[in-house]
């Protein structure tokens, strides 16, 4: 038998300005290559403890049950749903994008009686809408997407949280794209369960899902009459591994935890407020540059995500051709639209390490070239000049 010839080559260097993953700092990549130890080694247990402490800082919470689930952000979603929901429980899910639809699907699979409240892609919910549905349905849990990655919309939470809790329900939110890029205030907003991912604004490779549960959520979980539908994601067991008992549950991805530990150190070294300001400033510069190129946003300014910019593809421009040219000629990745936005929008990420002046200016210059090649008339240098005007005024 002939030997199999490997065709694997060195991975290309990309500038990751899509909806995720984002660019990763060299310190985080170095942490990935640190020597592996056992999943109950005293050193690794100390890493876990420090990571829990840092996650509490980033989530702005004192929740005891705060940890990193072994799995991507979708595992975080499933963790929160299956631990709070028992068969027959009522759950309300806000659907204004792809990930609201996914949360409703996960809840249905967990046996919930799901009621969806819907808004067109790119819009957000208000407290009155939520008040009406929770009064009518009387759910156990209300689930909302704080940062809808498919649309670039940022969902206000505070007022809705009051409505949800006045109705006696628990509030679950998705912060996969928001954590580390815009304020996430779990205690101040009285959020009962939250999940995120590592590969967005935390600038860590995908593979872990930070989660946090309030005391009220823990009471509900401890009062369950049925087993959690997922053995792997059952917090009644996983929390004994992360807590004082250190009971073996599964072999944690050791080096991914090293990476998240280092990524969180970088977040806190920069400071959350400084990090939010950086994301906001680069968003404003990108916005000015895109508008100078004749490109409009798909989401109103009052609830745009600064780290995930969903913009309308100009008439006469071929979506896939531009994204292919950006990748092949400039090494820049941006994302296409999802669901009803497919072929109509681009999703431009400015997340974590990818949120920089350099990347904004490089993308605007490259995009000008792509638009020109598509036959679109633009003023040479207008995008870069407009962005530099924002930076100069800062």
From TrEMBL:
<keyword id="KW-0032">Aminotransferase</keyword>
<dbReference type="GO" id="GO:0008453">
    <property type="term" value="F:alanine-glyoxylate transaminase activity"/>
</dbReference>
<dbReference type="InterPro" id="IPR024169">
    <property type="entry name" value="SP_NH2Trfase/AEP_transaminase"/>
</dbReference>
<dbReference type="Pfam" id="PF00266">
    <property type="entry name" value="Aminotran_5"/>
</dbReference>
<dbReference type="InterPro" id="IPR015424">
    <property type="entry name" value="PyrdxlP-dep_Trfase"/>
</dbReference>
<dbReference type="GO" id="GO:0004760">
    <property type="term" value="F:L-serine-pyruvate transaminase activity"/>
</dbReference>
<dbReference type="InterPro" id="IPR015422">
    <property type="entry name" value="PyrdxlP-dep_Trfase_small"/>
</dbReference>
<feature type="modified residue" description="N6-(pyridoxal phosphate)lysine">
    <location>
        <position position="200"/>
    </location>
</feature>
<dbReference type="InterPro" id="IPR000192">
    <property type="entry name" value="Aminotrans_V_dom"/>
</dbReference>
<feature type="binding site">
    <location>
        <position position="347"/>
    </location>
    <ligand>
        <name>substrate</name>
    </ligand>
</feature>
<keyword id="KW-0808">Transferase</keyword>
<keyword id="KW-0663">Pyridoxal phosphate</keyword>
<feature type="domain" description="Aminotransferase class V">
    <location>
        <begin position="38"/>
        <end position="337"/>
    </location>
</feature>
<dbReference type="InterPro" id="IPR020578">
    <property type="entry name" value="Aminotrans_V_PyrdxlP_BS"/>
</dbReference>
<dbReference type="InterPro" id="IPR015421">
    <property type="entry name" value="PyrdxlP-dep_Trfase_major"/>
</dbReference>
<protein>
    <submittedName>
        <fullName>Purine catabolism protein PucG</fullName>
        <ecNumber>2.-.-.-</ecNumber>
    </submittedName>
</protein>
<comment type="similarity">
    <text>Belongs to the class-V pyridoxal-phosphate-dependent aminotransferase family.</text>
</comment>
<dbReference type="GO" id="GO:0019265">
    <property type="term" value="P:glycine biosynthetic process, by transamination of glyoxylate"/>
</dbReference>
């Amino acid at each position: 038998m002939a030997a199999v010839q490997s065709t694997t080559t060195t991975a290309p260097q990309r500038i990751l300005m899509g909806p995720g993953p984002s660019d990763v700092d060299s310190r985080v990549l170095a942490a990935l290559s640190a020597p592996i130890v056992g999943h109950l080694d005293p050193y690794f247990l100390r890493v876990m403890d420090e990571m829990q402490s840092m996650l509490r800082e980033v989530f702005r919470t004192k929740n005891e049950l705060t940890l990193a689930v072994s799995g991507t952000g979708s595992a975080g979603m499933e963790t929160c749903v299956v631990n709070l929901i028992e068969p027959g429980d009522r759950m309300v899910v806000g659907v204004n994008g792809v990930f609201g639809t996914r949360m409703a699907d996960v809840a249905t699979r967990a046996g919930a009686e799901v009621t969806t409240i819907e808004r067109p892609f790119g819009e957000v919910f208000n407290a009155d809408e939520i008040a009406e549905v929770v009064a009518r349905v009387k759910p156990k849990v209300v689930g909302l997407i704080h940062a809808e990655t498919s649309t670039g919309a940022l969902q206000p939470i505070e007022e809705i949280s009051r409505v949800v809790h006045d109705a006696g329900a628990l509030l679950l939110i998705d912060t996969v794209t928001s954590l580390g890029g815009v304020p996430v205030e779990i205690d101040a907003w009285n959020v009962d369960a939250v999940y995120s991912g590592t590969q967005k604004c935390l600038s860590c490779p995908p593979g872990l899902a930070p989660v946090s549960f309030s005391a009220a959520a823990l009471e509900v979980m401890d009062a369950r009459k049925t087993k959690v539908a997922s053995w792997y994601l059952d917090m009644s067991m996983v929390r004994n591994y992360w807590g004082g008992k250190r009971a073996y549950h599964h072999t944690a991805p050791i080096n991914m935890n090293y990476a998240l530990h280092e990524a969180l150190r970088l977040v806190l070294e920069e400071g959350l407020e400084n990090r939010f300001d950086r994301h906001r400033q680069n968003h404003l510069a990108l916005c000015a540059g895109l508008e100078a190129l004749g490109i409009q946003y798909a989401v109103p300014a009052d609830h745009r995500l600064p780290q995930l910019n969903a913009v309308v593809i100009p008439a006469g421009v071929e979506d896939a051709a531009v994204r292919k040219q950006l990748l092949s000629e400039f090494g820049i990745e941006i994302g296409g639209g999802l669901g009803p936005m497919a072929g109509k929008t681009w999703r431009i990420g400015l997340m974590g390490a990818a949120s920089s002046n350099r990347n904004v200016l490089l993308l605007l210059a490259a995009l000008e070239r792509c638009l020109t090649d598509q036959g679109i008339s633009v003023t040479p240098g207008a995008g870069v000049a407009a962005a530099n005007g924002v930076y100069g005024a800062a």
